[in-house]
Amino acid sequence: MSEVELGERLRAVEDELAIRRTQARYAAFADAKYSPLRRRVDDKAMMDAAVEQAACFTAQARWDGGVFGGTMIGRDALAKWFAAPPWNFAMHYYVAPQIKIADNAADTRWRLWQVGHRAGEADPLLLAAITQQRFVRQADGEWLIDGMRFEQVQTFPLPPSGFPPVFPTTEIS
Questions:
Q1: Do 66 and 96 form a contact (C-beta atoms < 8 A)?
Q2: Rounded Cα–Cα distance for residues 170 and 31 (Å)
Q3: Residue 57: how many CB atoms within 10 A of its CB?
Q4: Rama region for 141: left / alpha / beta (φ>0; ψ in -120 to 50; rest)
Q5: Element of type H or E holding 138
Q6: Given CA atoms 30, 35, 36, 38 in this order, what sign does their dihedral have?
Q7: Residue 156 in contact with residue 171, Cβ under 8 Å?
Q8: How far apart are CA 117 and CA 173, in angstroms?
């Protein structure tokens, strides 16, 4: 293998890892809007998390939630939407990514599992979906989401006892 081929392979691996990090950051800030007691955080913490969540997107990104939230265009619209979620609690798990990179863009497909409790509903639920996303490499090398579409959204009600009791958290150092 030539040095050029090795460099191309290394860049492909680094690009995929950067895309995965952006997706993980998006999910982490989506979850940061809820406390360990499974409640929404205060307004300032909510807005801070929403702004950081929206920062995972390009300035002109399109977010198409379909029946789950409609369509938002632009980082500012996304931050506003993320700051007023339809959930009292949610935890996101994006798994089994399929990532196809071509130059400075990537098309991805993720499976989403989300445990949540929608505002105004009595029981928790499990949400399953597929997300199609377009990532774009920025001038500084960072990969941001330029488009996100939710497909095959399914919800499964959990029994009222579906959430286990809340246990105290401990810090890991």
A1: no
A2: 18
A3: 27
A4: left
A5: none
A6: negative
A7: no
A8: 30
Q: CA gyration radius for the chain? A: 18
Helix 43-54 with 75-82: angle, nearest 10 deg: 150
Kind and range of the H or E element at 11?
helix 3-31
**Amino acid in the structure at residue 62:** R
As a residue count, the chain comes to: 173
CA torsion sign for 148, 151, 156, 157 is positive
Residue 15 tokens, joined = 């690009």
The DSSP secondary-structure symbol of 51 reads H
Burial of 11 (0-12, 13-18, 19+ CB in 10 A): exposed
Q: How far apart are CA 150 and CA 167, in angstroms?
A: 32
Amino acid at 54: A
Q: Tokens at residue 152, please?
A: 């095959």
Q: Which domains can be identified in the chain, with CATH numbers?
A: 3-162 (3.10.450.50)
The pLDDT profile of the chain, 173 residues, written as one tens digit per residue, is 888 788 888 999 999 999 999 999 999 999 999 998 889 999 999 999 999 999 999 999 999 988 777 899 999 999 999 999 999 999 999 999 999 999 999 999 999 999 999 888 888 899 999 999 999 999 999 999 999 999 988 989 887 766 666 666 666 65
